[in-house]
Amino acid sequence: MLRASRYLGFAGVIGLGVFACTQDVVGPARAVNRSTAAITAAADPAIAFAIQTGKPYKFTYSLGVMNADGSNQTSLVASGPAPHAAWSPDGHSIAYDPDIFHISRIDLSVVNGKPQASAPVVLPISHQAFDIAWSPDPLNDQLAYSWSSPVVGDPGGLTLAPSHPVTPYVETEIYRTPPNQHVVWIAWNPQATRIAFIQRCGSSVEVDSLFILDMTISPAPTATFIRQFQRGVFGLSWSRTQPDRLALAYPTTATKSGFQPAFLDLTTNTLSNSPAGLGANWSPDDSRLVYYGTSNSGVNTVSVVTLSSGATVNLASGLNPEWRRNP
């Protein structure tokens, strides 16, 4: 998923048409770096999010974490725009975007019950990053990020990049859009074999297209068109336990918020309503969703809904929540 302010404000690319929005594009095969290091689950904190402080229109943001019940809220790193976080597979590190030009990572530890972060390390990526998703494969330590050219009309794409600043820092482009389009939300499936993403047309063709990129195809991943939405899909999260279920929110005039949170069943290509809000992200056992909502004053609230009962608990002021994969 990606920060809210970026996607709500990014509308400068002009689309070519509906057929261009659904065009399959094939990129080169991914590069794989494997490690046999043992992976252990981390204790709380469970949720990373953008902490929002200050007054409307004068908000400041920082990358923060908290326990699953909203306790132990801790600010880790100050940020300009609201950052989006991506957890490492072992739950000990977070990659985030301090701005659209960089990706940074921190390593977490808990000292006397309080989360602490290492100094941020900047990853030398070659594009302007818009969304980040860390591969859930612990033996393939890579980030996927979406990018867009600073030149209006150029294509965008998806790239795999090492999650450490190794030398040489070798990136692999796995998808490129047609001209005048870009990739917004991205999400790995739990097996790290597929990536779901939204390809967005420009303002002249107000269409968002959902694609699935098959990472097992050799010699190159291929993208398959799934369905279209009205332009403005918000968030994309792959179920942790159900291999063909996505959470997202799509624009609609039928709700007060202007968005309908939904589940998409990929086996039937059908939508059903979800009780969550914007940027919904699954808990490790899929029993809950963390999400955020907005008010007319611009204040954002991170909340958790239990799917079996519909019970909702407000946790913090902030946005862009991301639940750690491990329990």
Question: How are the SSEs placed, and which strands pair?
Answer:
Elements: H1 4-9, H2 18-21, E1 47-53, E2 60-66, E3 74-79, E4 85-87, E5 93-99, E6 102-111, E7 114-117, E8 121-123, E9 129-134, E10 142-148, E11 156-162, E12 172-176, E13 182-188, E14 194-200, E15 207-214, E16 222-230, E17 234-238, E18 245-251, E19 259-265, E20 270-273, E21 278-282, E22 288-294, E23 300-306, E24 312-323
Antiparallel strand pairs: 1-2, 1-24, 2-3, 4-5, 5-6, 6-7, 6-8, 9-10, 10-11, 11-12, 13-14, 14-15, 15-16, 17-18, 18-19, 19-20, 21-22, 22-23, 23-24
What can be said about this structure in brief?
This protein has 327 residues and is mainly β.
Strand order of the largest sheet: 3-2-1-24-23-22-21
Assign the CATH class of the domain at 4-231. Answer: Mainly Beta
CATH topology of the domain at 4-231: Neuraminidase
How would you classify the helix and strand content by structural class?
mainly beta
Number of helices: 2
Regions with little confidence, pLDDT below 50 for 5+ residues? 1-42
Largest sheet: 7 strands, antiparallel
Count of strand segments: 24
| CATH architecture label name of the domain at 4-231 | 6 Propeller
Shape: globular
Mean pLDDT rating = 84
Task: State the helical fraction.
Answer: under 10%
Proportion of residues in β-strands = over 45%
Which H/E pattern describes the elements?
HHEEEEEEEEEEEEEEEEEEEEEEEE
From the N-terminal CA to the C-terminal CA, the straight-line distance is 20 Å
Rg over CA atoms: 18 Å
